[in-house]
Amino acid sequence: PSIATIHDVKKTDAGDLFIVMGHYEGRTIRDILNDDGPLPLDDAIDYAAQVASGLDAAHEEGIIHRDIKPGNVIITPKGRAVILDFGLAKVEDVTMTQDGTSMGTMAYMSPEQSANQKLDGRTDLWALGVMLYEMLAGKRPFAGGYEAAILYAAAHEPHSPVQLHRSDAPDWLSDVIDRLLEKSADDRYQSAGDVQEALANKGAVDNPAEAPPPVAPGPGTAEGAPPAATGTPGIGAPATQSQILIDPTTGAFVTRDGTPLGPMSGAQMLQSGLFQPPPPTKSKAVLWGGGAAVAVILIAVVGWFVGQSGEGGTATVITADQRARARELNRTALEYRANRQFTLAQATIEEALSLDSTYSEAWTTFAAVEIGLENYESAVEHAQRAVRLDDTNVAGWFNLAFAAEELGRFGEALGGYEASVKADSTFVPGYSAWGNRLIEMGDPGQALQILQRGIMVAPNDPRRFLLFKNIGKANLAMNEPQGALGALEEAVRLNDENPESLSLLAETYERLERPDDARAMWQRYVAVERDPAKRSAAQARLN
Protein backbone atom coordinates (compact mmCIF):
# COMPACT_ATOMS: atom_id res chain seq x y z
CA PRO A 1 0.00 0.00 0.00
CA SER A 2 0.90 3.71 0.05
CA ILE A 3 3.18 3.43 3.09
CA ALA A 4 6.91 4.13 3.20
CA THR A 5 8.96 0.99 3.70
CA ILE A 6 10.68 0.79 7.10
CA HIS A 7 13.89 -1.23 6.90
CA ASP A 8 15.15 -0.99 10.45
CA VAL A 9 14.89 0.79 13.79
CA LYS A 10 18.25 1.54 15.39
CA LYS A 11 19.77 3.48 18.24
CA THR A 12 22.60 6.03 18.15
CA ASP A 13 25.56 5.94 20.52
CA ALA A 14 23.76 8.64 22.51
CA GLY A 15 20.75 6.35 22.93
CA ASP A 16 18.40 8.12 20.48
CA LEU A 17 16.20 5.89 18.34
CA PHE A 18 16.01 6.44 14.59
CA ILE A 19 14.16 4.78 11.73
CA VAL A 20 15.73 3.59 8.46
CA MET A 21 13.14 4.12 5.71
CA GLY A 22 13.11 3.75 1.96
CA HIS A 23 14.07 6.78 -0.13
CA TYR A 24 11.37 8.25 -2.37
CA GLU A 25 11.88 10.85 -5.06
CA GLY A 26 9.24 13.53 -5.36
CA ARG A 27 7.64 16.39 -3.44
CA THR A 28 5.52 16.35 -0.34
CA ILE A 29 2.00 17.71 -0.60
CA ARG A 30 3.20 20.56 1.62
CA ASP A 31 5.88 21.40 -0.97
CA ILE A 32 3.28 21.27 -3.75
CA LEU A 33 0.93 23.59 -1.87
CA ASN A 34 3.74 26.03 -1.08
CA ASP A 35 5.08 26.04 -4.64
CA ASP A 36 1.95 25.68 -6.78
CA GLY A 37 -1.03 26.49 -4.56
CA PRO A 38 -4.24 24.40 -4.48
CA LEU A 39 -4.07 21.11 -6.37
CA PRO A 40 -6.10 20.17 -9.46
CA LEU A 41 -9.38 18.56 -8.43
CA ASP A 42 -8.62 15.09 -9.83
CA ASP A 43 -5.13 15.05 -8.28
CA ALA A 44 -6.43 15.96 -4.82
CA ILE A 45 -9.08 13.23 -4.96
CA ASP A 46 -6.58 10.65 -6.25
CA TYR A 47 -3.97 11.42 -3.58
CA ALA A 48 -6.57 11.36 -0.80
CA ALA A 49 -7.86 7.99 -2.03
CA GLN A 50 -4.32 6.57 -2.06
CA VAL A 51 -3.69 7.83 1.48
CA ALA A 52 -6.99 6.27 2.57
CA SER A 53 -5.84 2.97 1.05
CA GLY A 54 -2.59 3.09 3.02
CA LEU A 55 -4.38 3.98 6.23
CA ASP A 56 -6.86 1.17 5.70
CA ALA A 57 -3.98 -1.33 5.55
CA ALA A 58 -2.42 0.13 8.72
CA HIS A 59 -5.73 0.22 10.59
CA GLU A 60 -6.38 -3.43 9.66
CA GLU A 61 -3.23 -4.20 11.65
CA GLY A 62 -4.44 -2.12 14.58
CA ILE A 63 -2.00 0.75 13.90
CA ILE A 64 -2.93 4.43 13.72
CA HIS A 65 -0.58 7.05 12.27
CA ARG A 66 -1.61 10.07 14.42
CA ASP A 67 0.27 12.63 12.33
CA ILE A 68 -1.30 12.68 8.86
CA LYS A 69 -0.51 16.05 7.28
CA PRO A 70 0.73 17.41 3.92
CA GLY A 71 4.35 17.26 5.05
CA ASN A 72 4.06 13.53 5.73
CA VAL A 73 2.76 12.49 2.29
CA ILE A 74 5.18 12.49 -0.65
CA ILE A 75 4.05 12.34 -4.28
CA THR A 76 6.45 10.47 -6.55
CA PRO A 77 7.04 11.52 -10.18
CA LYS A 78 4.66 8.74 -11.24
CA GLY A 79 1.88 10.12 -9.07
CA ARG A 80 2.10 7.60 -6.24
CA ALA A 81 1.21 8.98 -2.80
CA VAL A 82 3.40 7.56 -0.03
CA ILE A 83 2.72 8.08 3.68
CA LEU A 84 5.86 8.94 5.63
CA ASP A 85 6.77 9.13 9.32
CA PHE A 86 5.06 6.18 10.92
CA GLY A 87 7.40 6.92 13.82
CA LEU A 88 4.41 8.43 15.66
CA ALA A 89 2.21 5.40 15.05
CA LYS A 90 0.70 3.63 18.03
CA VAL A 91 -1.35 0.52 18.57
CA GLU A 92 -5.01 1.39 18.11
CA ASP A 93 -7.36 2.34 20.96
CA VAL A 94 -4.78 3.36 23.55
CA THR A 95 -4.90 6.43 25.73
CA MET A 96 -2.37 9.03 24.66
CA THR A 97 0.70 9.28 26.86
CA GLN A 98 2.41 12.43 27.99
CA ASP A 99 5.06 12.03 25.30
CA GLY A 100 2.48 11.28 22.62
CA THR A 101 -0.12 13.91 23.37
CA SER A 102 1.13 16.77 21.24
CA MET A 103 3.48 15.06 18.83
CA GLY A 104 0.88 15.31 16.08
CA THR A 105 0.82 18.69 14.37
CA MET A 106 -1.83 20.91 15.99
CA ALA A 107 -3.71 21.98 12.86
CA TYR A 108 -4.47 18.35 11.92
CA MET A 109 -5.36 17.00 15.36
CA SER A 110 -8.86 15.62 15.81
CA PRO A 111 -11.03 16.91 18.67
CA GLU A 112 -10.60 13.64 20.55
CA GLN A 113 -6.82 13.77 20.06
CA SER A 114 -6.51 17.30 21.43
CA ALA A 115 -8.77 16.32 24.35
CA ASN A 116 -6.44 13.45 25.29
CA GLN A 117 -9.15 10.83 24.76
CA LYS A 118 -8.77 7.27 23.57
CA LEU A 119 -7.95 7.07 19.87
CA ASP A 120 -8.69 4.74 17.01
CA GLY A 121 -8.27 4.91 13.25
CA ARG A 122 -10.99 7.54 12.89
CA THR A 123 -8.59 10.18 14.24
CA ASP A 124 -6.50 9.64 11.07
CA LEU A 125 -9.64 10.15 8.99
CA TRP A 126 -10.15 13.58 10.57
CA ALA A 127 -6.57 14.55 9.62
CA LEU A 128 -7.14 13.23 6.10
CA GLY A 129 -10.23 15.46 5.88
CA VAL A 130 -8.21 18.51 6.94
CA MET A 131 -5.52 17.67 4.37
CA LEU A 132 -8.03 17.08 1.56
CA TYR A 133 -9.73 20.39 2.37
CA GLU A 134 -6.35 22.14 2.27
CA MET A 135 -5.37 20.49 -1.02
CA LEU A 136 -8.53 21.90 -2.60
CA ALA A 137 -8.89 25.27 -0.85
CA GLY A 138 -5.25 26.18 -0.31
CA LYS A 139 -6.11 26.87 3.32
CA ARG A 140 -7.02 24.81 6.36
CA PRO A 141 -10.64 24.46 7.49
CA PHE A 142 -9.95 25.80 10.98
CA ALA A 143 -8.15 29.08 11.51
CA GLY A 144 -6.79 30.93 14.51
CA GLY A 145 -4.17 33.44 15.46
CA TYR A 146 -2.44 30.91 17.71
CA GLU A 147 -2.41 27.14 18.11
CA ALA A 148 -4.83 27.03 21.03
CA ALA A 149 -7.38 28.97 18.96
CA ILE A 150 -7.05 26.44 16.14
CA LEU A 151 -7.67 23.54 18.53
CA TYR A 152 -10.71 25.32 19.96
CA ALA A 153 -12.09 26.00 16.47
CA ALA A 154 -11.60 22.37 15.45
CA ALA A 155 -13.44 21.12 18.53
CA HIS A 156 -16.27 23.67 18.68
CA GLU A 157 -16.70 25.71 15.50
CA PRO A 158 -18.06 24.70 12.08
CA HIS A 159 -15.81 24.88 9.03
CA SER A 160 -16.83 26.85 5.98
CA PRO A 161 -17.90 24.68 3.01
CA VAL A 162 -14.97 23.87 0.74
CA GLN A 163 -17.00 25.14 -2.23
CA LEU A 164 -16.68 28.68 -0.88
CA HIS A 165 -12.98 28.43 -1.77
CA ARG A 166 -13.16 25.93 -4.63
CA SER A 167 -16.16 26.46 -6.92
CA ASP A 168 -15.39 23.39 -9.06
CA ALA A 169 -15.66 21.02 -6.09
CA PRO A 170 -18.78 18.86 -6.64
CA ASP A 171 -21.42 18.49 -3.96
CA TRP A 172 -20.53 14.86 -3.31
CA LEU A 173 -16.91 15.77 -2.55
CA SER A 174 -18.00 18.54 -0.20
CA ASP A 175 -20.19 15.97 1.57
CA VAL A 176 -17.25 13.56 1.92
CA ILE A 177 -15.11 16.29 3.49
CA ASP A 178 -17.93 17.36 5.82
CA ARG A 179 -18.30 13.79 7.05
CA LEU A 180 -14.55 13.40 7.58
CA LEU A 181 -14.62 16.58 9.69
CA GLU A 182 -17.49 15.60 11.97
CA LYS A 183 -16.62 16.57 15.57
CA SER A 184 -17.69 13.18 16.89
CA ALA A 185 -15.75 10.19 15.62
CA ASP A 186 -19.00 8.20 15.59
CA ASP A 187 -20.39 10.54 12.93
CA ARG A 188 -17.40 10.18 10.58
CA TYR A 189 -16.69 7.37 8.18
CA GLN A 190 -15.95 4.33 10.28
CA SER A 191 -13.07 2.99 8.19
CA ALA A 192 -10.45 4.29 5.79
CA GLY A 193 -11.73 1.72 3.31
CA ASP A 194 -15.11 3.49 3.32
CA VAL A 195 -13.34 6.77 2.56
CA GLN A 196 -11.42 5.23 -0.33
CA GLU A 197 -14.65 3.79 -1.71
CA ALA A 198 -16.50 7.10 -1.33
CA LEU A 199 -13.76 8.95 -3.21
CA ALA A 200 -13.75 6.33 -5.96
CA ASN A 201 -17.56 6.19 -6.28
CA LYS A 202 -18.34 9.91 -5.90
CA GLY A 203 -19.59 9.64 -2.36
CA ALA A 204 -21.31 6.25 -2.47
CA VAL A 205 -20.36 3.49 -0.01
CA ASP A 206 -21.93 0.06 -0.57
CA ASN A 207 -21.25 -1.63 2.77
CA PRO A 208 -20.19 0.95 5.33
CA ALA A 209 -18.28 -0.30 8.35
CA GLU A 210 -20.08 -0.32 11.68
CA ALA A 211 -19.02 1.96 14.47
CA PRO A 212 -16.52 0.39 16.88
CA PRO A 213 -17.78 -0.60 20.33
CA PRO A 214 -17.85 2.12 23.01
CA VAL A 215 -14.72 2.62 25.08
CA ALA A 216 -14.30 3.13 28.80
CA PRO A 217 -15.05 6.58 30.24
CA GLY A 218 -12.40 9.10 29.28
CA PRO A 219 -11.00 11.99 31.32
CA GLY A 220 -13.74 14.03 32.95
CA THR A 221 -16.41 11.35 32.53
CA ALA A 222 -18.10 10.31 35.75
CA GLU A 223 -17.69 6.63 36.47
CA GLY A 224 -20.90 4.90 35.55
CA ALA A 225 -22.67 8.12 34.54
CA PRO A 226 -25.35 7.65 31.87
CA PRO A 227 -24.58 9.17 28.47
CA ALA A 228 -26.44 12.22 27.23
CA ALA A 229 -29.51 11.48 25.19
CA THR A 230 -28.67 11.17 21.49
CA GLY A 231 -29.01 14.48 19.70
CA THR A 232 -29.84 16.34 22.89
CA PRO A 233 -26.68 17.51 24.69
CA GLY A 234 -26.97 17.92 28.41
CA ILE A 235 -29.99 15.69 28.95
CA GLY A 236 -29.50 12.91 31.45
CA ALA A 237 -31.47 9.70 31.84
CA PRO A 238 -33.74 8.52 29.00
CA ALA A 239 -37.30 9.81 29.33
CA THR A 240 -40.52 7.89 29.24
CA GLN A 241 -43.73 9.23 27.73
CA SER A 242 -44.80 10.39 31.16
CA GLN A 243 -41.79 12.70 31.52
CA ILE A 244 -40.66 16.10 30.31
CA LEU A 245 -37.00 16.99 30.38
CA ILE A 246 -35.32 20.36 30.46
CA ASP A 247 -32.42 20.80 28.07
CA PRO A 248 -29.87 22.75 30.18
CA THR A 249 -28.11 24.04 27.05
CA THR A 250 -31.23 25.80 25.74
CA GLY A 251 -33.52 26.09 28.75
CA ALA A 252 -36.28 24.45 26.71
CA PHE A 253 -38.77 21.75 27.64
CA VAL A 254 -38.18 18.73 25.40
CA THR A 255 -39.71 15.29 24.95
CA ARG A 256 -37.79 12.08 25.50
CA ASP A 257 -36.49 12.10 21.88
CA GLY A 258 -35.17 15.65 22.26
CA THR A 259 -38.02 17.36 20.37
CA PRO A 260 -38.56 20.93 21.69
CA LEU A 261 -42.08 21.43 22.99
CA GLY A 262 -42.05 25.16 22.37
CA PRO A 263 -44.01 27.66 24.45
CA MET A 264 -47.04 26.00 26.07
CA SER A 265 -49.45 27.14 28.69
CA GLY A 266 -49.88 25.15 31.88
CA ALA A 267 -53.29 23.99 30.69
CA GLN A 268 -51.86 22.83 27.37
CA MET A 269 -49.11 20.91 29.13
CA LEU A 270 -51.60 19.18 31.44
CA GLN A 271 -53.83 18.37 28.47
CA SER A 272 -50.89 16.91 26.54
CA GLY A 273 -50.85 13.79 28.70
CA LEU A 274 -47.15 14.18 29.47
CA PHE A 275 -47.65 14.38 33.20
CA GLN A 276 -48.55 10.81 34.09
CA PRO A 277 -46.53 9.49 37.06
CA PRO A 278 -43.30 7.93 35.77
CA PRO A 279 -41.10 5.27 37.33
CA PRO A 280 -38.74 6.52 40.06
CA THR A 281 -35.69 8.32 38.69
CA LYS A 282 -32.66 10.12 40.01
CA SER A 283 -32.50 12.59 37.14
CA LYS A 284 -32.73 16.15 38.46
CA ALA A 285 -33.73 17.37 35.01
CA VAL A 286 -37.04 15.48 35.07
CA LEU A 287 -40.35 16.98 36.17
CA TRP A 288 -43.37 14.84 36.71
CA GLY A 289 -46.98 15.38 37.59
CA GLY A 290 -49.42 13.89 39.98
CA GLY A 291 -50.69 15.40 43.20
CA ALA A 292 -48.83 18.45 44.50
CA ALA A 293 -46.23 18.19 41.72
CA VAL A 294 -48.74 19.82 39.35
CA ALA A 295 -48.20 23.11 41.17
CA VAL A 296 -44.45 22.80 40.66
CA ILE A 297 -45.02 22.19 36.96
CA LEU A 298 -47.23 25.24 36.60
CA ILE A 299 -44.60 27.39 38.34
CA ALA A 300 -41.95 26.00 36.00
CA VAL A 301 -44.11 26.71 32.94
CA VAL A 302 -44.42 30.34 33.94
CA GLY A 303 -40.97 30.84 35.40
CA TRP A 304 -38.51 28.83 33.31
CA PHE A 305 -38.55 31.24 30.39
CA VAL A 306 -37.90 34.30 32.53
CA GLY A 307 -34.26 35.34 32.26
CA GLN A 308 -32.25 38.15 33.74
CA SER A 309 -31.37 40.66 31.02
CA GLY A 310 -28.24 41.88 32.78
CA GLU A 311 -29.49 45.47 32.71
CA GLY A 312 -30.20 46.32 36.33
CA GLY A 313 -31.80 42.95 36.92
CA THR A 314 -34.76 43.68 34.63
CA ALA A 315 -36.60 40.46 33.89
CA THR A 316 -37.29 39.57 30.25
CA VAL A 317 -39.36 36.67 29.00
CA ILE A 318 -37.32 34.40 26.70
CA THR A 319 -39.16 31.56 24.99
CA ALA A 320 -37.65 28.21 24.12
CA ASP A 321 -37.82 29.11 20.44
CA GLN A 322 -35.92 32.32 21.07
CA ARG A 323 -33.22 30.49 23.01
CA ALA A 324 -32.87 27.85 20.31
CA ARG A 325 -32.72 30.48 17.57
CA ALA A 326 -30.11 32.49 19.50
CA ARG A 327 -27.89 29.43 19.76
CA GLU A 328 -28.31 28.68 16.08
CA LEU A 329 -27.34 32.25 15.22
CA ASN A 330 -24.33 32.01 17.54
CA ARG A 331 -23.10 28.96 15.63
CA THR A 332 -23.58 30.80 12.35
CA ALA A 333 -21.67 33.81 13.67
CA LEU A 334 -18.81 31.54 14.71
CA GLU A 335 -18.72 30.12 11.19
CA TYR A 336 -18.59 33.60 9.68
CA ARG A 337 -15.82 34.51 12.10
CA ALA A 338 -13.81 31.40 11.23
CA ASN A 339 -14.07 32.47 7.59
CA ARG A 340 -13.02 36.03 8.55
CA GLN A 341 -16.39 37.42 7.44
CA PHE A 342 -16.47 39.69 10.45
CA THR A 343 -19.19 42.10 9.30
CA LEU A 344 -21.63 39.23 8.71
CA ALA A 345 -20.60 37.68 12.03
CA GLN A 346 -21.23 40.98 13.79
CA ALA A 347 -24.75 41.37 12.38
CA THR A 348 -25.58 37.73 13.14
CA ILE A 349 -24.44 37.78 16.75
CA GLU A 350 -26.30 41.05 17.35
CA GLU A 351 -29.49 39.32 16.18
CA ALA A 352 -28.76 36.40 18.54
CA LEU A 353 -28.39 38.73 21.49
CA SER A 354 -31.57 40.58 20.60
CA LEU A 355 -33.32 37.26 21.17
CA ASP A 356 -31.45 36.24 24.33
CA SER A 357 -29.33 38.89 26.04
CA THR A 358 -28.55 36.47 28.89
CA TYR A 359 -26.56 34.12 26.64
CA SER A 360 -22.99 34.39 27.98
CA GLU A 361 -21.41 32.44 25.11
CA ALA A 362 -22.95 34.83 22.57
CA TRP A 363 -21.33 37.81 24.30
CA THR A 364 -18.05 35.86 24.16
CA THR A 365 -18.53 35.35 20.43
CA PHE A 366 -19.32 39.06 20.03
CA ALA A 367 -16.05 39.89 21.79
CA ALA A 368 -14.13 37.53 19.51
CA VAL A 369 -15.70 39.11 16.42
CA GLU A 370 -14.79 42.59 17.64
CA ILE A 371 -11.21 41.40 18.24
CA GLY A 372 -11.14 40.25 14.62
CA LEU A 373 -12.26 43.75 13.58
CA GLU A 374 -9.67 45.26 15.97
CA ASN A 375 -12.47 47.01 17.87
CA TYR A 376 -10.82 46.27 21.20
CA GLU A 377 -12.87 48.67 23.35
CA SER A 378 -16.07 46.99 22.23
CA ALA A 379 -14.48 43.59 22.69
CA VAL A 380 -13.67 44.42 26.31
CA GLU A 381 -17.26 45.56 26.95
CA HIS A 382 -18.76 42.43 25.42
CA ALA A 383 -16.38 40.11 27.24
CA GLN A 384 -17.22 41.87 30.50
CA ARG A 385 -20.89 41.16 29.85
CA ALA A 386 -20.04 37.51 29.19
CA VAL A 387 -18.22 37.00 32.49
CA ARG A 388 -20.81 38.97 34.49
CA LEU A 389 -23.41 36.49 33.24
CA ASP A 390 -21.15 33.50 33.86
CA ASP A 391 -17.96 33.95 35.87
CA THR A 392 -16.81 30.45 34.86
CA ASN A 393 -16.74 31.43 31.16
CA VAL A 394 -13.09 30.68 30.41
CA ALA A 395 -13.13 32.01 26.84
CA GLY A 396 -14.88 35.16 28.06
CA TRP A 397 -12.09 35.91 30.54
CA PHE A 398 -9.43 35.12 27.95
CA ASN A 399 -11.00 37.40 25.31
CA LEU A 400 -11.33 40.15 27.90
CA ALA A 401 -7.64 39.86 28.77
CA PHE A 402 -6.53 39.69 25.14
CA ALA A 403 -8.48 42.79 24.12
CA ALA A 404 -7.31 44.71 27.21
CA GLU A 405 -3.72 43.79 26.38
CA GLU A 406 -4.14 45.16 22.85
CA LEU A 407 -5.33 48.43 24.41
CA GLY A 408 -2.26 48.60 26.64
CA ARG A 409 -4.33 47.99 29.78
CA PHE A 410 -1.88 45.46 31.10
CA GLY A 411 -3.16 45.27 34.66
CA GLU A 412 -6.61 44.39 33.39
CA ALA A 413 -5.07 41.85 31.02
CA LEU A 414 -3.16 40.15 33.83
CA GLY A 415 -6.35 39.98 35.89
CA GLY A 416 -8.27 38.43 32.99
CA TYR A 417 -5.65 35.79 32.29
CA GLU A 418 -5.52 34.94 36.00
CA ALA A 419 -9.33 34.67 36.10
CA SER A 420 -9.29 32.33 33.10
CA VAL A 421 -7.09 29.82 34.90
CA LYS A 422 -9.13 30.18 38.08
CA ALA A 423 -12.20 29.26 36.03
CA ASP A 424 -10.31 26.29 34.57
CA SER A 425 -7.13 25.37 36.42
CA THR A 426 -5.88 23.34 33.44
CA PHE A 427 -6.37 26.08 30.80
CA VAL A 428 -2.92 26.16 29.18
CA PRO A 429 -3.51 29.23 26.92
CA GLY A 430 -4.32 31.26 30.03
CA TYR A 431 -1.06 30.32 31.76
CA SER A 432 0.89 30.89 28.55
CA ALA A 433 -0.55 34.35 27.83
CA TRP A 434 -0.28 35.37 31.49
CA GLY A 435 3.38 34.38 31.57
CA ASN A 436 4.10 36.06 28.24
CA ARG A 437 2.57 39.34 29.43
CA LEU A 438 4.75 39.23 32.57
CA ILE A 439 7.83 38.67 30.40
CA GLU A 440 6.91 41.65 28.24
CA MET A 441 6.44 43.73 31.40
CA GLY A 442 9.96 42.86 32.57
CA ASP A 443 9.13 40.25 35.19
CA PRO A 444 10.41 36.94 33.73
CA GLY A 445 10.98 35.49 37.22
CA GLN A 446 7.31 35.63 38.13
CA ALA A 447 6.44 34.47 34.62
CA LEU A 448 8.49 31.31 35.16
CA GLN A 449 6.46 30.47 38.27
CA ILE A 450 3.18 30.85 36.37
CA LEU A 451 4.39 28.83 33.38
CA GLN A 452 5.81 26.02 35.51
CA ARG A 453 2.51 25.83 37.39
CA GLY A 454 0.75 25.37 34.07
CA ILE A 455 3.00 22.44 33.18
CA MET A 456 2.33 20.81 36.55
CA VAL A 457 -1.47 21.05 36.36
CA ALA A 458 -1.78 20.11 32.68
CA PRO A 459 0.98 17.58 31.98
CA ASN A 460 -0.93 15.91 29.13
CA ASP A 461 -2.33 18.96 27.37
CA PRO A 462 -1.33 19.05 23.68
CA ARG A 463 -0.84 22.82 23.93
CA ARG A 464 1.87 22.65 26.59
CA PHE A 465 4.52 23.47 23.97
CA LEU A 466 3.29 27.06 24.46
CA LEU A 467 4.44 26.87 28.08
CA PHE A 468 7.87 25.49 27.20
CA LYS A 469 8.24 28.17 24.52
CA ASN A 470 7.60 30.94 27.00
CA ILE A 471 9.80 29.32 29.64
CA GLY A 472 12.59 29.54 27.08
CA LYS A 473 11.64 33.12 26.32
CA ALA A 474 11.75 34.02 30.02
CA ASN A 475 15.21 32.50 30.40
CA LEU A 476 16.47 34.45 27.39
CA ALA A 477 15.03 37.62 28.95
CA MET A 478 17.14 36.85 32.03
CA ASN A 479 20.19 36.28 29.78
CA GLU A 480 20.19 32.57 30.59
CA PRO A 481 20.49 30.88 27.17
CA GLN A 482 21.60 27.61 28.71
CA GLY A 483 18.46 27.56 30.82
CA ALA A 484 16.38 28.37 27.75
CA LEU A 485 17.89 25.61 25.65
CA GLY A 486 16.13 22.58 27.13
CA ALA A 487 12.71 24.24 27.26
CA LEU A 488 12.89 25.46 23.66
CA GLU A 489 14.14 22.13 22.35
CA GLU A 490 11.17 20.52 24.11
CA ALA A 491 8.80 23.09 22.61
CA VAL A 492 10.11 22.32 19.12
CA ARG A 493 9.96 18.58 19.75
CA LEU A 494 6.32 18.87 20.75
CA ASN A 495 5.40 21.14 17.83
CA ASP A 496 7.94 21.57 15.06
CA GLU A 497 5.84 24.03 13.06
CA ASN A 498 5.48 26.88 15.56
CA PRO A 499 7.51 29.78 14.11
CA GLU A 500 8.19 31.56 17.41
CA SER A 501 9.59 28.42 19.04
CA LEU A 502 11.91 27.88 16.08
CA SER A 503 13.13 31.48 16.02
CA LEU A 504 13.74 31.54 19.78
CA LEU A 505 15.69 28.29 19.57
CA ALA A 506 17.73 29.67 16.65
CA GLU A 507 18.52 32.76 18.75
CA THR A 508 19.50 30.52 21.68
CA TYR A 509 21.92 28.55 19.51
CA GLU A 510 23.46 31.85 18.36
CA ARG A 511 23.97 32.98 21.96
CA LEU A 512 25.56 29.63 22.79
CA GLU A 513 27.89 30.03 19.78
CA ARG A 514 26.51 27.06 17.88
CA PRO A 515 26.33 28.60 14.39
CA ASP A 516 25.57 25.42 12.46
CA ASP A 517 22.61 24.58 14.71
CA ALA A 518 21.44 28.19 14.54
CA ARG A 519 21.55 28.20 10.75
CA ALA A 520 19.65 24.93 10.51
CA MET A 521 16.98 26.28 12.87
CA TRP A 522 16.62 29.53 10.93
CA GLN A 523 16.11 27.45 7.77
CA ARG A 524 13.34 25.52 9.48
CA TYR A 525 11.82 28.81 10.64
CA VAL A 526 11.80 30.24 7.10
CA ALA A 527 10.03 27.10 5.87
CA VAL A 528 7.05 27.57 8.22
CA GLU A 529 6.80 31.34 8.78
CA ARG A 530 3.90 32.77 6.77
CA ASP A 531 4.57 36.46 7.41
CA PRO A 532 6.56 37.67 4.37
CA ALA A 533 8.36 40.41 6.30
CA LYS A 534 9.49 38.06 9.07
CA ARG A 535 10.48 35.42 6.54
CA SER A 536 12.57 37.94 4.60
CA ALA A 537 14.30 39.15 7.77
CA ALA A 538 15.24 35.60 8.69
CA GLN A 539 16.42 34.89 5.16
CA ALA A 540 18.65 37.93 5.36
CA ARG A 541 20.29 36.48 8.47
CA LEU A 542 20.99 33.28 6.58
CA ASN A 543 22.55 35.17 3.70
Walkthrough of the structure:
The protein is mainly α. Among the domains are: 6-200, Orthogonal Bundle (Transferase(Phosphotransferase), domain 1), CATH 1.10.510; 454-543, Tetratricopeptide repeat domain (Serine Threonine Protein Phosphatase 5, Tetratricopeptide repeat, Alpha Horseshoe), CATH 1.25.40.10. Helices cover 50% and strands 7% of the residues. It is built from 22 helices and 12 strands. The protein has helices spanning 29-36, 41-60, 111-114, 122-137, 147-156, 171-180, 192-200, 266-271, 293-303, 320-338, 342-355, 360-372, 376-389, 394-406, 410-423, 428-440, 444-457, 465-477, 481-494, 499-511, 515-528, 532-542, and strands at residues 6-11, 17-21, 27-28, 63-64, 73-75, 81-83, 90-91, 244-247, 252-254, 286-287, 306-308, 315-317. The protein has a 3-stranded antiparallel β-sheet with strand order 3-5-6. Strand 8 and strand 9 (252-254) form a beta hairpin. Helix 10 (320-338) packs parallel to helix 12. The radius of gyration is 26 Å and the shape is globular. Residues 90-104, 211-253 and 263-315 have low confidence and may be disordered.
